[in-house]
Amino acid sequence: MKSTISIILTTATIAFSTACQSQNKSDRTVTVHLRGVPAANIALVPLTGTQAHKPLKVAEQIKHGQSTVFTIEKSLLPADFQVRFEYRDMQSGQPTGAEKRVFVRDQNVELYINPMFATNPDSVRFLPSDKENIVYQQFMEQNQKYRENISMLQMVLTKYDDPRSEFYREGIKEYKSKIKQHAEWIQQQISTHRKLFVSSTFALQVIPELDFTLDEKSRKAKMLENYIQAVDFTDTLMSLTSDYRKWLDNYVNQHFERSYTAQQVDSALTQAGIKLIEKAKTGHPTIYGKMVDYFFEGYESMGMQGGIKMLAPYVADPKCMASKKSMILRRLDGLGNLFVGAKAPDFIIKDSKGNPVQFHTFGESKPYKLLMIWSADCEHCQEVTKQLYPYYTNSPIKNQFDVLAVSLDDTETEIPMWEKASASLSAWTHVRAKGGLLSPEAKAYFVVATPVMVLVDAKTNTIVAMPETARDVAGFFRE
Hints:
There is one protein chain. This protein is an alpha+beta fold. Helices cover 41% and strands 19% of the residues. The chain has helices at 7-21, 131-159, 166-192, 216-227, 242-253, 262-281, 285-302, 305-310, 312-315, 325-337, 379-393, 414-423, 440-444, 470-478; strands spanning 28-34, 39-46, 57-63, 67-72, 79-88, 95-104, 109-113, 124-126, 348-350, 356-358, 368-374, 401-407, 429-432, 452-457, 463-465. It has a five-stranded mixed beta sheet, with no helix packed on it. Strand 5 and strand 6 form a beta hairpin. Helix 6 (262-281) packs antiparallel against helix 7.
């Protein structure tokens, strides 16, 4: 999906925030020394930030005993990265892969690794001076032992059928003791290694205690309350790690129930947003802003209008440093102006042949018209067109509406993709909005992400539906 936030603005905000939190004076390097396999392709991939999950560089066919060096710009630091390996299994000859996570703050990293045993600490070595990665590796080894014991006790207590027995009471006592020991150990680790970047991830490993004296629903509610108590929302370094995103995702996922209706899910996730944002609001403005950004992304991807509306007072708060604030405000404006029964905004634009097209007079020969604002390089758009176009061309539905496809592709790489894609969708009328997401057409329809579809009465230009999928379009004409 295309983000409406200006790339320049986003980069500047993140660079400023990172600069304030880091003392890096220069770029840093990650040197990977390969051993154990004849050859491998090695990639360094950021796990957070604007370039998350996109390789910074891929070094191809690095051989056993050789090394490769990755340079990381200081604007991307501090952060955690994934070193990914692609190689052939020495026995089967089949392609296989491995990965190793590394933290970079103000140190250069030297990683000596056998990819076949990347999860085995004995096959992974860092320089003794690299405290960030050595301490994290040691912490996670010990943390895993704690978690395994607690998980085992938790499973037994959850399934045990006689809560009045002495065994059960002793089990609860042991469980509480282990939970307390683990939490105290984590606090001690944070205190000991507070000068290290990795220590900001430790609190995210605290296990929220379950109260087995409560019924299942109350127990879960109490657990979710405990979940957010151990985290320090004044620690801005925490939000620069992928652990933080995983922690947030896990908290949100805990609110899903199999028996929930769609309305109940919306309500539960909106309440989850309120709880976490209110907690983050008491911390650092950067954490507060990133929390609002996180929930906006989630609500937008799920089409949760109630959740988006809930964000209104937070984006109006001067203390909220949300990088997506302008995007959220545009989306809120859209919710207030674009709705079933409202008049669709008019615009005049030239089609792919240079002929002017006025939306209000477009498609008057049929009862309805569909405005689809899209991008050829948007994966979600590709999914929609892949489903909608065959349905449109191979069924009587095409007699019910015309399609005006407005492309927001605007760069040298995007435009050829649009030209190719639009040629394969020849039954629709194609136009391209110059300026992309900043074009008058995109602004008129408050576009924050593509695709956007608006179904309009061709005679009155009244919005009759705002489908999100091809199935929604089909559903409208079946009713």
